[in-house]
Design brief:
With 362 residues, the protein is mainly alpha-helical. It has one domain. The chain has helices at 14-28, 33-49, 53-58, 64-82, 136-148, 185-200, 207-229, 232-263, 270-293, 303-308, 311-321, 324-333, 338-349, 353-361, and strands at 51-52, 94-96, 104-111, 120-122, 126-128, 131-133, 151-158, 176-177. Strand 4 (120-122) and strand 5 (126-128) form a beta hairpin. Helix 4 (64-82) crosses helix 6 and helix 8 crosses helix 11 (311-321). The chain is globular, with a radius of gyration of 20 Å.
Length: 362
């Protein structure tokens, strides 16, 4: 499959943000009412397409391959509860075919000489480094506008998002979607575990903490699922994909570190920084070409990412990777006990942001 979930764990909270914000706007007035209206409308349209997995499985018109994937997803969902101690609710017990390849489209932006993402603030979820749309054309329009303001922007296709389990009733629960259901077994398990992890702990306004925590849960849980339930062939396929992801992260994160050093170097002129930036992105693309010609044997899964790579796409990577090793160490320290691990992460989430980060680092 060429179109992969490039940054494992990439998610959006646009649904719950939109519903909370729409209520605020309707009662107090809001200049962004149009944005929230499209978000709330898009979320309800998604929910209206979903119906219980049991109904899909019982329907003779449901194709056998779809039934098999839905059945697999429910075994993963049960595993998430019994083995990973993730919430036992209606999330991922319903399925919807959206007729498109993404649940939402996120706009991410950063300045010309900085990796610091532009943020948008919403009720319920706080400030985040993206703005989500259900119509790609709307996302592209905002990205174009941001470029006229001097930002570098990318539009990312997001396969799933979490409503944090805050909406009442089965109807509002997060459904399985066609945008990810047919992924390789390991990736499907990891996405389900990742999104459920957002329901366990959420620190308002701290995207890096939230996404790194969920990514740690998905990796630990995904490895456990594959070892206990997947076939040898499925494990081998995931190992190949994971090696490519590791290669990708190595290249991208090294470029990110190099560029961050350039941008923060006060001894360099703006022109010198621009020249160093151009050279570093050229080297990044050359490194990717070498991987394709060598170990990847022509695999093209990351072609689009490298072709469009800019400060925004590098900036967003830190949110999903930077704190993962710290969470993995915390899981080990808590005796690989998920309930103890979650309790400690909840304690950290309740701390002020700087204290939270410092405590996690220790």
């Amino acid at each position: 499959m060429k179109k992969r979930w490039l940054l494992m764990g990439l998610a959006s909270l646009v649904g719950v943000a939109a519903l909370g914000a729409a209520a605020v706007c309707l009662t107090s007035g809001c200049s962004s009412l149009g944005y929230y209206a499209q978000a709330a409308g898009g979320h309800f349209a998604l929910l209206n397409k979903a119906k219980p997995v049991t109904e899909w499985l019982a329907d003779e018109a449901t194709a056998t391959p779809l039934k098999e994937r839905l059945a697999l997803s429910q075994r993963m969902r049960d595993f998430a509860v019994s083995e990973l101690k993730l919430p036992d609710n209606a999330s991922y017990r319903r399925y919807a075919d959206l007729g498109r390849n993404a649940a939402v489209y996120n706009v991410v932006a950063a300045p010309e000489l900085s990796l610091t993402l532009k943020t948008w603030c919403f009720p319920v979820v706080g400030c985040v480094g993206y703005r989500g749309y259900y119509d790609r054309a709307d996302a592209e329009s905002l990205a174009a506008e941001l470029r006229t303001q001097g930002f570098e922007a990318v539009v990312q296709s997001i396969p799933a998002y979490s409503t944090l389990g805050k909406m009442p009733g089965d109807y509002f629960s997060d459904p399985l979607l066609n945008t990810f259901l047919r992924w390789q077994e390991g990736d499907l398990a990891r996405l389900i575990f990742h999104e459920l992890a957002h329901q366990v702990v959420y620190a308002k306004g701290d995207t890096m903490f939230n996404e790194s925590f969920a990514t740690a849960v998905e990796r630990i849980g995904g490895e456990r699922w594959m070892q206990q339930h997947a076939s040898e062939a499925a494990r081998a396929e995931l190992a190949r994909l994971e090696q490519r992801r590791q290669d990708f992260r190595r290249l991208a994160m090294q470029a990110r570190a190099d560029l961050e050093a350039v941008y923060k170097d006060d001894t360099l002129s703006v022109e010198a920084k621009r020249a160093a930036k151009t050279a570093r992105f050229a080297r990044l693309r050359a490194d990717h070409a070498a991987l394709k010609a060598g170990p990847w044997q022509g695999w093209t899964g990351y072609d689009t990412w490298f072709a469009n790579a800019n400060n925004a796409s590098l900036g967003v990577m830190a949110a999903y990777n930077e704190l993962v090793p710290q969470f993995e160490r915390l899981y080990e320290r808590e005796g690989r006990d998920f309930e103890r691990f979650y309790a400690e992460v909840r304690r950290l989430a309740a701390l002020p942001r700087d204290e939270r980060r410092a405590t996690l680092a220790r």
